[in-house]
Amino acid sequence: MTQPNAHELLEIARATLLEQLLPALPGELRYPALMIANAMAIAARENRLGAQAEDQEQARLAALVDDAPSTLPDLRRQLARAIRQGSHDAPQTRRTLVETLRQITVARLAISNPKALP
């Protein structure tokens, strides 16, 4: 049998916190415990989905910039510069940009706040 990985450990710890510890906590500690549980859920999703989301973002942003830098932060900076310079103002280019940014946002939201997704 294999050991649980990081996101599975976080999910197990979160379930234990919510199911066993939270009911026994006094009222003033319930909110901080729920915040901890929420942070654990985000960390588990980040561990499970984060690398894939970043790889997809990097590929999507590279398709939007002329001289694709090698790192995601460089791609973000280059795209921001291109937007400021008006490189994506043409209607078709703007539609592609908006759709790309929408896809990136949805992928990041699936990690940070999946309840906000339609």
UniProtKB/TrEMBL annotation:
Natural source organism: Pseudomonas alloputida
Gene Ontology molecular function: any one: kinase activity
Keywords annotated in UniProt: Kinase, Transferase
Name of the molecule in the record: 4-hydroxypentanoyl-CoA kinase subunit LvaB
InterPro entries linked: DUF6285
Database matches in Pfam families: DUF6285
Organism superkingdom: Bacteria
Domain DUF6285 residue range list: 23-115
